[in-house]
Amino acid sequence: MNASRSASLLVAKALSAKSPVLQLLLETCTGLPQLKVVHAHMLRSQLIADVFCASRLLAFCVDPPTGADRPSLLYYAEKVFSLVDQPNLFMYNAMIRGWSGHGGDPSRSLDLLRQMLRMGLRPDNLTFPFVFKACAALGYGGMGRQVHGQVVLVGLWGDPYVQSSLLHMYARCGNGGAASRLFREIERPDAVIWTTMVLVYSQCGELLSARKMFDEMPDRNAATWSCMISGYAKNGHFEEALDLFRSMQLEKVRANEAAMVGVLTSCANLGTLEGGKMAHEYMVRHNIVLNLILGTALVEMYAKCGDIQRAIAIFEQLPERDWLSWTTMIAGLAMHGCTLMALEYFSKMVGAGVAPRAITFTAVLSVCSHGGLVAEALSSQNGALWMHGRPLGRAGKLQEAERFVLEMPVEPDGSIWGALLGACRIHRNSAMGKRVGEILTQLQPEHGGYYVLASNICAKAGQWEGVSELRRAMKERGVKKELGHSLVELDGRAHLFITGDKSHPEIGKIEEMWEEILQRIRAAGYVGRTGEVLFDIEEEEKDSALTKHSEKLAIALGVMKTGPGATIRIVKNLRVCEDCHEVTKLVSEVFHREFIVRDRNRFHHFKGGKCSCLDYW
DNA sequence: GTAGGGTTAG
């Protein structure tokens, strides 16, 4: 006897005993196939006409056991629902809830709300939270406000579930004002509502207000901490995110996945490998399982903090991979100058049937420019673009790269043009650099880095009119150059140097060290770049007396605090300049240190007087 | 008689 027949017999027996057993039976379903058996019997036995039984069926579809294919169950539920003559409030709620959630279609929730109102049904305190969730997902703030009015009309605005979902909706729709007004009207906000306010303010970029809420609320739980940490991370306040993670541990609150993503992202952006490793250990210690997003964040952290081998190992162990996890891996390899491997992963990605997106192309383009390759677009296979790199001479013609950008199956965005501009600099192609620079300064006029890069390309070619033109454009548009800074981790402490800032407690000794370094590398053949050329080329402002970029102070401290054979990691916010690059090469040789420097674009691994970028960057 | 809110992150 086959399985479905034995199941059928079981069902028939069960249904004769009516609902409590039906409930049990539904609980044993693990997916659509089993559900269909139950449904078939409900139809045959007319049980489907029983509103309660039909509701149980819908409830199952809306809230299936983990692992079941929720979207297909939702469509099945809708079919069942559409065959019901007069669905009751419960059934509407179940369907509205279903569509509003994961793998659903929030606009259907709103359709159903209209439909139930037409049918003369009155939404209750359960309907509204689902409806607001749908509005939030769609970003329909206006619709949300109208429904808010309905809530007041039916006298439900005092319900805490309704209140928090309303706040959440206003937060997602960017209406922080409405949210704070609403919050002030709530007499006794509970922890969920307080937490939602933390979300509201971090969503609006008002981190101080968010923190104020966080500090003022009477009891915080894991979600609250997580919300505040992610808020900091999302708004670029990485140090604060890590500080808060430390306090969270002191308070013995266990972090969840979302919090860890914020923590890892912060470590990745700061480039703190020590912090990142500690976060990873925390995850292992607390059995926090790697899902797709968390796994990708971990890959990114290791890649951006300089441990590309570990990043690869984590990536290979991920339970699943999507376009973004592939892209993160490819971009990470690109940063480390692992050109061939990056291209290999790109072809693996395409081979796995994962469609690349714009950021993927940016990463591939940067692979090519770092590796002295030019990207070449070939014919499409299975609708996906295929691409490989072809070696180019140093003199490099970039026309093919430019053509690649123009022929890409996605609209080139700022970062793609930016990658091409970087390639122009490497290949010393000022004509194209000028062209691409113009596109970029129009596309993203507020982005100071592109003016600087374009101006450096001109300077290198001796085209001073181009340089002054770009400087003028920057001034006219009020674009500020980002201040250079370098971070170095030594003895478990992070030292930050900002251009022109001499606040480090050991600045005197550092300057002395720098003088010594200068003497010894000069003996090894270093000729500092000075004067006009420097002024026009460097990305960081020239120090009035000495050509001392923040990076040089970091190098000096690194040499000071370590012995021969040590590895010193430095993270910069801008691209490394040619002079610093030269200096670091020489220091690595003369002082027998390894430097792993992360600049805005990529890693430079200095050892024995050479750099892993082979002077392409 | 059946159900629900806040972290959604890379």
TrEMBL record:
Pfam families: DYW_deaminase, E_motif, Eplus_motif, PPR
Keyword Cytoplasm: no
Source taxon at top rank: Eukaryota
Gene3D superfamilies: Tetratricopeptide repeat domain
Mitochondrion is among the record's keywords: no
Gene Ontology MF terms: RNA binding; zinc ion binding
Ranges occupied by PPR repeats: 88-123, 190-220, 221-255, 322-356
Residues spanning the signal sequence: none
Keywords: Repeat
A single GO BP: RNA modification
Domain DYW: 525-617
Protein name, entry field: DYW domain-containing protein
